Amino acid sequence: MNRKSRPSRKDDASPEATAPRIVSSSHLVSPRSRELSEFEYGLIVSNNAFSRWIVHCMSAAGLRELTPLDVLVLHHVNHRARDKRLSDICFIMNVEDTHLINYSLKKLQNLGVVQSSRSGKDVTYATTETGRQYVERYREIREACLINALKADDALNQQIGELARLLRVLSGVYDQAARAAASL
């Protein structure tokens, strides 16, 4: 972890202007957006914390040995109690490599929490009753451990909503930049 201080400007003496910026790679800091490097570091540590959280929460619910992607696939397959196609799961989760999702689906099927069925040419996936029970137990643990610890009031919930909107916007920018980089 590198710490990099943002240079002060004479006309900007606020504490935020001189506060040290924590970035993951100081060599990537751009004078046009130092904040983006700080955001990327926050994204790295929050992604790792979130991944650790969902694996531990699902383990506490009784499903051990799942990867973060496995947990997310199970939740998405369970979402709105509608059968999902592999391509739909990949699209919604923004995963290009269908093999990753397919591997998770096979693993979840072997555990008996997801089942597949044919509908014409399409193969669709749904949670089993056992899968729904694990997801419900996960929800209960999430409520007890995460939601209770957050102690969010209306103001904090509004900030979280704005952050979610900003993350969706930035994910679109990163996707566009990835397409541009792939064409170089």
From TrEMBL:
Pfam families for the chain: HTH_27 (PF13463)
Keyword Chaperone attached: no
Origin superkingdom: Bacteria
An example molecular function term from Gene Ontology annotations: DNA binding
Residue span, HTH marR-type domain: 66-131
Record carries keyword Ribonucleoprotein: no
InterPro entries associated with the record: HTH_MarR-typ (IPR000835), Trans_reg_MarR_HTH (IPR014601), WH-like_DNA-bd_sf (IPR036388), WH_DNA-bd_sf (IPR036390)
Segments for region (Disordered): 1-26
Keywords in alphabetical order: DNA-binding
Protein's name in the database: Winged helix DNA-binding protein
